[in-house]
User: Which sequence fits this backbone?
């Protein structure tokens, strides 16, 4: 086994009731790189993303077969799901900061996992906000409601909140689709920095975003992964015809 | 063309003024009630002395006391203020806790199939007349608790807390449930994605996010408990003394009014009005709290600036940060996290327990009354001749109730609906007039029903010389029903999509036509539902009609100026004597059935018609 593979799926199939949402997905996500999932709506990219932290456990009638390995452990088995989600952080499409203060948003995760000491929590607040590039903007309003922040700031707070529990992997589900171009730019820059320490998987509808920030790109269509490779290769000369059509804007 | 526009404009402005007038009516009504009661209480306050009245520990009224002669009785209501406070606290302790946890259970933990049934039945039970709960308490709970009390009498704070608690529980549950359901589900996902357990996510994120709504529901429960009269009178014992234990007889402020109103002398009546004023004052304070709580909180809590401290700290300790994070990083999901959230998990089981207790208590009440009452709903009872001791027929009460519904509906619903149209369609959301009207309408809905009874008796029966009559009772209830009708109608109007209005305007339709052809048809199910709910309330209320309509179930009313007991009052009258227990149970049954039918109808109309109009 190559040591630089962080997430590996083998013959992964997923059904929502009778609907076959993922078909035999075999994927290897390298660690400490950014991997982008692209494809038209309903192709299964978000579904696959949510397999990595088992968020689709919340959906009724969702069945999975196959293997999903994270650092060599099959997570599609009887594991501690809460511990998994601590180690695999997620950022959602729309910023979903809790209706609490900025600080409480950050400390919620660590406190959930048993960290009580105030000095450690204070450090985590500073450190996570710093990493998310938000510290200078919010340092004077840590006690104010997180809902008073702008949309872009809220999304970076969500990233900071995910970082506060020290994950290995960050899953991002179209994190910039609800944001303006400037906020989007900030988050993209942030991703570039974060990949030094974290493995990032990002779902995006924005081709140019995928080109700009991702190291690897996977193209999905109707639940199948049709193409996977270095982003430069995928976008420069896609092997799959449908992928080429999608990238060049002929459908999707 | 210009001419038609002119008549059109005239018509528009005429209707606008009519709507505005109905809305302004609520302001006038509130001010009138408050001024009238204040004015009538001043002589008593003067004679007794304000502080003697409030802090006096003894109440020993005399019906011969007048404003001119020296006072022979004692008029201090401190024992009753304390009594009301204890009764309310007890009710909240029981009903608030049960209601809140039941709401959490229904929204978050209960199986899907059960969910709909539970929430529907909770909504239905919220409408059961308080006099039914009082009757149940008197007949079932008092003898039961009597076994544990030294003197064999179960009445006192314990029974009042339990009965009032069961009574307010559905209200607290329904409102808390709504506010928990209103919380954005993405918060839940966000918490789960951080690795928090289901229980922790619910009690640490969802519940805190809905805390304003939950608090508001509790405050509403407080308002209902403090204003409750008939149920309390039936089980408190009503001695004007301080509480000494769980089973010591005590009197609340509301009970004081109802106990002595019918035979009050001049000063005595004044003192009772003064009690009503103090009670209303309490309610107004609670209402203000309710409004403050309901406002979305953007408080800027100014705790010590943590940021500065950390910032300085971190400048020097940048390396330690890395270490701290590295330490947390040692976690691996392979190893099950040892951290088990005891608090959250026990709260979950508390929710389950509360739901079981609360629903069992409600069901017990209803089933017990049905089992004991249904066999006695006979044609003699419903339609027979009234003979005292032999056949206490409630035929006259049924007719009185029907007439009461008719007369109240004629006044209350048109005024309420038109006022709501003004508020929702004609006024800017932030105008001062609207704010005032809304405040007044909320105040009106907060005034306890016994104070309405007091006002109705003094104003309609005595001052307006309507006598103890169905008309006086109807007018009193009109004042009570208007605020809820306004709120229900307004909600229904606001549900109509704004784009539909715009579409109508864009076609050149005027405001009036838009309201008539587009808005009202869309809002009709909601308006109908609130009207039916209003009717159900007219049937349920007892305190406001006791002294305005009379409590005699014997004579058949001839017209609207006849007196007559409504069904709820009939239950109170029948239930307090031991002669007609079976007929009392039967009357309670009829009341419950009527209210359940009306409330179900209201829910169905809102749902079915609403769906049809949406075309789904």
Assistant:
């Amino acid at each position: 086994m190559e040591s630089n593979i962080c997430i590996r799926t083998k013959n992964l199939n997923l059904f929502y009731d009778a609907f076959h949402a993922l078909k035999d997905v075999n994927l290897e996500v390298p660690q400490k790189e950014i991997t982008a999932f692209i494809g038209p709506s309903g192709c299964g990219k978000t579904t696959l993303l949510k397999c990595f932290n088992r968020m689709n456990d919340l959906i009724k009638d969702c069945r999975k077969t196959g293997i999903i390995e994270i650092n060599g452990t099959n997570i599609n088995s009887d594991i501690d799901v809460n511990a998994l989600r601590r180690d695999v952080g997620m950022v959602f499409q729309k910023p979903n900061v809790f209706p609490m203060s900025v600080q409480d948003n950050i400390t919620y995760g660590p406190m959930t996992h048993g960290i009580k000491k105030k000095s450690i929590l204070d450090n985590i607040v500073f450190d996570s906000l710093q990493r998310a590039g938000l510290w200078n903007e919010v340092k004077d309003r840590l006690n104010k409601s997180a809902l008073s922040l702008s949309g872009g700031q809220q999304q970076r707070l969500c990233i900071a909140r995910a970082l506060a529990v020290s994950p290995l992997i960050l899953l991002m589900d179209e994190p910039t689709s609800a944001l303006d171009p400037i906020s989007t730019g900030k988050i993209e820059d942030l991703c570039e920095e974060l990949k030094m320490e974290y493995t990032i998987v990002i779902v995006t509808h924005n081709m140019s975003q995928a080109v700009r920030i991702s190291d690897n790109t996977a193209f999905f269509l109707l639940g199948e992964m049709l193409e996977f490779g270095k982003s430069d290769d995928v976008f420069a000369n896609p092997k799959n015809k449908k992928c080429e059509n999608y990238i060049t804007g002929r459908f999707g | 063309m210009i001419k038609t526009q002119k008549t059109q404009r005239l018509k528009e402005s005429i209707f606008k003024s009519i709507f505005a007038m109905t809305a302004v009516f609520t302001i006038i009504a509130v001010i009138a009630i408050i001024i009238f009661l204040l004015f009538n209480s001043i002589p008593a306050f003067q004679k007794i002395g304000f502080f003697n009245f409030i802090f006096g520990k003894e109440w020993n009224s005399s019906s011969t006391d007048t404003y001119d002669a020296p006072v022979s009785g004692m008029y201090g209501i401190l024992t009753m203020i304390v009594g009301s406070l204890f009764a309310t606290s007890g009710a909240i302790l029981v009903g608030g806790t049960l209601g809140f946890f039941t709401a959490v259970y229904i929204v978050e933990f209960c199986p899907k199939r059960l969910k709909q049934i539970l929430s529907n039945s909770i909504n239905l039970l919220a409408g059961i007349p308080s006099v039914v709960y009082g009757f149940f308490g008197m007949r079932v709970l008092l003898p039961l608790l009597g076994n544990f009390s030294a003197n064999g009498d179960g009445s006192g704070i314990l029974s009042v807390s339990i009965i009032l608690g069961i009574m307010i529980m559905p209200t607290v549950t329904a409102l808390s449930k709504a506010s928990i359901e209103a919380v954005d589900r993405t918060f839940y996902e966000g918490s789960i994605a951080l690795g928090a357990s289901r229980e922790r996510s619910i009690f640490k994120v969802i519940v805190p996010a809905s805390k304003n709504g939950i608090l508001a529901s509790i405050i509403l429960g407080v308002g209902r408990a403090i204003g409750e009269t008939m149920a309390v009178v039936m089980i408190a014992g009503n001695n004007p003394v301080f509480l000494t234990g769980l089973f010591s007889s005590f009197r609340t402020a509301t009970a004081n009014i109802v106990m002595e109103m019918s035979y009050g002398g001049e000063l005595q009546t004044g003192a009772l009005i003064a009690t009503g004023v103090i009670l209303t004052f309490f309610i107004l304070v609670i209402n203000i709290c309710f409004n403050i709580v309901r406002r979305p909180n953007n408080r800027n809590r100014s705790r010590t600036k943590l940021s500065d401290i950390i910032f300085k700290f971190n400048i020097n300790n940048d390396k330690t940060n890395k270490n701290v994070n590295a330490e947390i990083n040692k976690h691996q999901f392979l190893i099950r996290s040892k951290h088990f959230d005891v608090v959250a998990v026990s709260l979950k089981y508390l929710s389950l327990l509360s739901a079981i207790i609360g629903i069992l208590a409600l069901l017990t009440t209803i089933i017990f009354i049905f089992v004991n009452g249904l066999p006695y709903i006979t044609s003699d009872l419903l339609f027979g001749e009234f003979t005292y001791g032999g056949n206490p027929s409630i035929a006259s009460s049924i007719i009185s109730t029907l007439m009461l519904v008719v007369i109240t509906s004629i006044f209350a619903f048109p005024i309420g609906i038109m006022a709501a149209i003004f508020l929702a369609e004609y006024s800017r959301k932030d105008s001062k007039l609207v704010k005032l009207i809304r405040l007044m309408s909320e105040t009106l809905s907060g005034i306890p029903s016994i104070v309405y009874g007091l006002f109705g008796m003094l104003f309609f029966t005595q001052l307006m010389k309507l006598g103890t009559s169905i008309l006086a009772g109807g007018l009193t209830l009109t004042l009570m029903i208007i605020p809820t009708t306004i709120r229900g109608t307004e909600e229904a109007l606001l549900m109509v999509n704004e784009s539909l209005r715009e579409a109508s305007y864009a076609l050149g339709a005027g405001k009036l036509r838009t309201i008539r052809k587009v808005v009202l048809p869309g809002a009709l199910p909601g308006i109908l539902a609130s009207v039916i709910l209003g009717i159900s309330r007219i049937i349920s209320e007892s305190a406001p009609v006791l002294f305005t309509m009379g409590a005699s179930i014997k004579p058949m009313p001839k017209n609207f100026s006849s007196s007559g007991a409504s069904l709820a009052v009939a239950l109170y009258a029948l239930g307090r004597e031991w002669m007609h227990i079976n007929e009392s149970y039967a009357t309670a049954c009829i009341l419950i059935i009527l209210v359940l039918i009306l409330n179900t109808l209201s829910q169905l109309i809102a749902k079915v018609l609403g769906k049809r109009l949406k075309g789904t």
